[in-house]
Amino acid sequence: MSFAIANLGLAAIVAISVPVLMFLYPVAIVVIVLALAWPWVSQRLVLARVVIAFTAAAAFFDLLGALPASLAATPVVTTLTEAASAVLPGYDVGFGWVVPALVGTVVGLALSARGSRTRQAEASSARVAAPA
């Protein structure tokens, strides 16, 4: 197996790995930040899920932009990367995932706050309904 990989050559290995890494790095950075904030985030798991989902969606466009030229030239990939470049600030320099991660944080906080209020209301109604 290592013989086959060695014969591919460095250029081919890089061409295969860069698109994958362009997808994984933003997700890994967000997971590390969430892990550092885990004492606070562990109470709001919906926040972590939403932030990772928004980041992964934006990182997908980074993956498309890093594809080898033969694949990047296809009409679908070109259209998607041009749209991402127009919509995502920092996309052209590899930071198109930052704003979606921040938006995911706001959405996740809103969803966790709503879920927290719903749980509190259910707990209050259960206490009221319980016989004394």
Which structural traits does this protein have?
132 residues
- Give me the number of helical elements: 7
Rg estimate, integer Å: 21 Å
Helix content: over 70%
Q: Could you tell me how far the N terminus lies from the C terminus, measured between alpha carbons in angstroms?
A: 71 Å
Which class of secondary structure composition applies to the elements? mainly alpha
Number of strands: 0
Summarize model confidence as the mean pLDDT. 85
Shape: elongated
Main sheet summary: none
> Which segments are poorly predicted (pLDDT under 50) over 5 or more consecutive residues?
none
Strand content bin: under 5%
Order of helices and strands: HHHHHHH
